[in-house]
Description:
Number of helices of chain B: 25
Largest sheet of chain B: 4 strands, mixed
CATH class of the largest domain in chain A: Alpha Beta
Strand order of the largest sheet of chain A: 1-2-3-4
CATH superfamily of the largest domain in chain A: NTF2-like, domain 1
Oligomer: heterodimer
Radius of gyration of chain B: 25 Å
Amino acid sequence: MKKGHLFAALLGALTVVLILIGTEWPVPSAAAYAGGGGLLRSSSTPEETAANLVDEIRMQAWDKAYASLANKAQFTEDEFKRDITGYYPSLRTYATLESFEVTPLHESADEAEIRVKLHWSTVVGVSVSTRDLHMMRNGDHWEAEWPIVKEAVVPPQVIPVNYLRWDVIYRGPGDDWGIQDVEAPHVRIVDMHPVERAEGLVILGELLNEDVVPANVSVTATLLSKSQSPIATEGSFDKISHLLLPKQVTPFLIEFSNVTLSQVGSVRMVPTSSLVSASADPVIEIEDQQLNPAPGASLTGQLINQSGQIVNVAHVLGTFYDKTGQVVWVADEYIDRALLPQTPIPFEIHIPQDLASQVSSQRTVVATYSSGGSQ
Amino acid sequence: MSLILLTVVVVHLPLLLMKLPLQSYDANFHIFFASHYVHHWFNPWNPKWYAGFSQTTYPPLTQQWVALVSRILGLDMAYMAVQFAAIVLLALGVYRFSLLWVSARAASIAALASVFLGSESFLVYSAGQLGTTCAAPIYLNALPFLFEWIRQGKWRSFLKASVLFTAAAAAHHATLLFGSFFFAVPVLVLVFLDRQDDERVSASAFVGRTAAIAVVVGAAIAVVLLPFWIALIHNPVTQAPIPHPSRANYILSPQWGLNYFIVPYGALILALPFIFIRGSMVTRLRPLLIGFWVAFMVGLGGTTPVGHILLGRAFDVLTMERFSYWATLLALPFVGLLASELIDRYRSWAVVSLTVAAALSCALAVSWATYRPADAEDFKVDTVALWLNRDGHDQYRYITLGFGNKIARLAVMTDASSVDGEWNSGRTLPELTQFGGGALTSSKYFNKAGLDALRAMLMHADHYGLKWVFVRDHYYDPLLSFAGWRQVDSLEDKTITVWSKDGVPPATPVNSAQMPPHWQGLMWGILPFGSSLLAILVIFIPERRRGMRRSNDSFSSDKLLAERMAS
């Protein structure tokens, strides 16, 4: 063979080999676009089968994921998809699967139980859900049974609505939105104290709307050093219920990363409020609340939407008190499923392990968002 | 050559007069930079994005030309004019570069092919990469002067090569950096391989001349782009990598293979076997083949591990389509050779087939911007700009959500400042750099990284005077609602909602420590643009024809070999 031919053959072969390597063992950035794996995916173990299924869910390859299921005869592909993304618009509808964990619970020669923990990226943060898959051997490979949860169907009914509502008349489209020319509702911080945590300093407290009109509220905290120079300023962001009806109380939590209590001389708290239109609807009832002790300390319960409209996103804020009634922690959870009328949805708010023993009581508030109008 | 230039006019001028590049990904970004130079030629500090950033983080030449020409044509048409000049220069550059490797006839065909090149149309009409598409032709035009300088020691060529290389760097620094490996090294090897009167250039002359031009060009670029290097040293690109589909594996993700391989290469894919075989068979074409092959492999993104291995961390910073562009430019001499041989053998059939293949490649790449638009939906931002510009709203900063690359267009039209932007390397705000998301307006497409960045920015709204959020994608509504923002207005028939946060103080300057001093502004306004003026001047220094004839002579033996093999 001539040198030129040999060179061409070598270069061609090298090209093919490099493409094969890149396809079977893709570099991280390529793997991210391909769903995490190479071209040839094995399903010779229950774990691999479960991982492949979740990868297909991540890539939103619903047809492939559905086709791979052992129990697909029990539901349609659309029901499978809606079981994952939600039957009504919710946080999950537009979430992307960020990562997942596969944990074997039990395994025999022909059957296995696999737990998959799914970390969803939603617009308000990461939401975690868990599914236990029953796996069955089929010849030389494994297939998963999807534990489908069909949405409860609410029977047709009339729900009488009897709630308070406050409207505000603004000056019009030319209004200067930067400054309202009406007196701001009166709000007051009724409790506040700093707590040092591993990740930094946390300011906890509660805010009361003392007024007879609804208020859109926020709290800003500025840490001052012992020489009264500012260290950092942060706001409550979403660790507060921003809409306060008259006489309502909301907890708040403000985080300062990389700051220790010893650095702080004082804290300057600035609550802000503005007059807004509001209504007491939708009413969310909280039932079966229970404080669960450590390990895995949490507050569990159920939310029931008492109104007739669908609540697309609910935000549950739990305030935890010690025996003296002082706030020891504030925690929250976003519900990633829509709240249908009269349909209970469970929630679970985790309490830090080291604080769980101090908690003797709690109070829960729920903020809601419905598409077409925020509440 | 006049026929080729006429073809450029016929194919590309109507498309540019239709302002087709405006729907590309980056055209508005370049126009935004240019709009700043229109008003502040000697002050590269632009307060409209990222609460203030320095435009010295991007080589300014093409944008300054757009700014200058806009005095006559307006910004949009000035962009088209500069882009048109780049396409004309490309045909000339490809001809001159190809002449180093193949016959004049094949080089002419290569130049003609460059007019229809899929990757060129892809970058012009879909990607909007003005810098890359301007720098490459300048670079290609410099390479024959490099050859002549090293081969014959002609000082005229040394001067011309140096000035053109510097101007190319002022247009796009990455082209010069990577072009040195893909383009210049093969040319240097060619000098060494080529014989003149049966004698090679002596090793000492080769080394001395190569070192001389490397030092001079390096020093010139260091001076001309000094503010750029200072900005890079002060703010190295250490931010978290941002995903880009050009780094995907094109087999595992075929939709991106279509976008970044099929469309840019087009019918050139059919020529790949010829490139490999002929490039291997003919000794003097091997350097070109190696240069092409490396650029080709890197341009395949994550399809092979080559890019990841060769570029290291830069693989996660750069986008790969520019490597495919360079690979196709390196392939053009082979294409010219192939077409020349096919025409010799099959005459009119070959002409018709090649014309159809070229037209289809160009048509696919041009129309790709329609099939895969940068923005899923076209919409006007005029009302948003008007809203920001009235009643003192521009005392505060703003962001948009769901605006895609319209944020650059909006930034051109409004006086208000944003904490968002489209030039990732210019970002210094920690909320934007630490997570690995791109522009805030497209946060959701970057999944957790993008949404974390958006949350971090909204958390610090007070600090940045960020009071307005313009929402065109209601996906973000729950976050704004739970974070305490309120909808206060709606625009464009309620397709855009305006959200506001109470208690935000008016915006104050931030990042001022990174503001370039006045002397850097003067350098930035004078030297890069001056380098292009100097390049235009030195090009008109008369050239002796002997050198080029030598190139043709040195090629002739290989032409005979190629013709023998073809027959």
